[in-house]
Amino acid sequence: MISSLTGKLIQTNEDSVIIDINGIGFNVIVSKNTLEKFSSVNSVVTIYTHLVVRDDSLDLYGFSSAEEKKMFLNLITVSGVGPKLGILILSGMPVKSLALTIVSEDTKSLSKIKGVGKKIAERLVLELKEKIITENASLLTHIEDVMDSDNQIINEAIEALCSLGILRADAMKAVSLSKENNWDGTLENLIYNALKSMNKY
After folding, report:
1. What angle do CA 94, 98, 100 make, to 5 degrees?
2. pLDDT tier at 183, thresholds 50, 70, 90
3. Distance (Å, rounded) from C-alpha 107 to C-alpha 120?
4. Interatomic CA distance for residues 155 and 176, integer angstroms
5. Greater confidence, 123 or 135?
6. Model pTM?
7. For residues 121 and 110, is the Cβ–Cβ distance under 8 A?
8. What is the pLDDT of residue 150?
9. Helices and strands of the chain, counted as H and E runs
10. Mean pLDDT, to the nearest integer, of 12-18?
């Protein structure tokens, strides 16, 4: 199994990169997020990989971080989610936002990702929520109080941000951070600080 590659990035395509290792060019299928990070042609890069073997093909999928690879491996365990859809989902939002969106059961935001309908979104939540919580305790630390909170002001602030088109996962994170920094206890101040932290005010 090819777990990672380190070599010269010689070409980027719409959904893949080619990495040269000792004269051999490896075509690696990647998400948009990984593609954005591997934009410097002729630079030496390390990419985490997963090889998918089928009767008629060998496809190598690549990720800019071990965290993204882990999420991909989790995604393709979900019923109805193959490697190609897994990459599309990873292209839909950053890994941390995706994890928080699944944990917060935000199927509406998941359904907006290309290739993900309502049923797939519900399966992602049903089959991955507990696993992601277990594997990403540190990632979720900042929003645990928000998710478990019965504080009406906090919930109203999250809903207000969502009404502006902000993903629920991002809204939860912003509200959580704003709550910890100079919050005067009012809804207006909490929303203002959350927007400010996201550079939207």
Report:
1. 120
2. confident
3. 9
4. 11
5. 123
6. 0.74
7. yes
8. 45
9. 11, 5
10. 95
- Residue 142 pLDDT greater than 60, yes or no: no
Distance CA 4, CA 75 (A): 19
* Tokens read off for 171: 């809204």
What count of other Cβ atoms lies within 10 Å of the Cβ of residue 200? 11
Helices (H), 136-181: 137-140, 144-148, 152-163, 168-180
Query: Residues near 51 by Cβ (< 8 Å), separated by ≥ 6?
Result: 1, 2, 58, 59, 60, 61
Q: Are 194 and 178 in contact (CB under 8 A)?
A: yes
Strand bridging mode 4-12 / 57-63: unpaired
pLDDT of 100? 82
Terminal-to-terminal C-alpha distance of the chain: 48
Residue with tokens 């630390």: 141
Cα–Cα distance, 178 to 192 (Å, whole number) = 9
Task: Find the radius of gyration of the CA atoms of the chain.
Answer: 19
User: Tokens 């951070």 identify what position?
Assistant: 177
Q: What is the pLDDT of residues 23-71, one digit of tens each?
A: 999 999 999 999 999 988 999 999 999 999 988 889 999 999 999 999 9
